[in-house]
Amino acid sequence: MTRLDELLYEMTRYDDKDVRRIQHFLKVHEFARLIGLAENLDPYTQEVLEAAAIVQDIGIHKAEEKYGRNTGKYQEMEGPGEARTMLTALSWPQEVIDRVCYLVGHHHTYDNIDGMDYQILVEADFLVNLFEDGSTPDMHAEKRIYPEFPDGGRKTPVPPDVRERRKRKINRLDPMVPGGNDD
Question: In Å, what is the CA distance from 155 to each residue of 5, 76, 149, 151?
Fold first, then answer.
């Protein structure tokens, strides 16, 4: 097994019988993985992105225990410590652990996005949350799906042409899409 496979296994054990949360992180991981591949991330950034996508909501159980709620801010407060414990136990490199914990501690903060790993993690989580929260296309006809970032922010919402280009790249990678995986 690869390190990412071991992390997927441990995160599944961590969430135990919470099937909804297991399915959530599996979907976020897969979207993040595919978008990262479509964007040709370097191997280090791709691994950091995938690890962060797997453990991004690891703070939920602790937040519920401690505060009786699991809002994004509480997840960001409680998640990094839990992620650090799991990644350290699996002997991940300290540099990777530090970046993953940073991403876990900020994945519900949408200003000052400072890297492609952060940007893609936010996008993948949005995609899954839109579906899980029962969102439909007609609900977004008059409003943006992505939040507005402050004028001074490092990243802006992904323009429609970039989203379409990513969709085409992802479809080419997907063997279940007609014409996909046509290496």
Answer: 31, 20, 7, 9
Residues 127-180: pLDDT tens digits?
998 888 776 555 544 444 444 444 334 445 566 666 676 666 666 665 555 555
Residues 71-119: pLDDT tens digits?
Answer: 888 899 999 999 999 999 999 999 999 999 999 999 999 988 999 999 9
Long-range contacts of 158-163 (CB under 8 A, 24+ apart): 158/123
Enter the pTM of the model.
Answer: 0.74
Q: How confident is the model at residue 14 (pLDDT cuts 50, 70, 90)?
A: very high
Residue 56 burial by CB count (10 A; 0-12/13-18/19+): exposed, middle or buried? buried
Q: How far apart are CA 37 and CA 43, in angstroms?
A: 9
Distances 106 to 22, 31, 113, 147, 165 between C-alpha atoms, Å: 20, 18, 9, 15, 27
Q: CB under 8 Å to 129, separation ≥6 — which residues?
A: none
Residues 6+ apart with CB under 8 A from 63: 69, 70, 71, 74, 75, 77, 78
The distance in angstroms from the start CA to the end CA of the chain is 25
Number of Cβ within a 10 Å radius of residue 21:
19
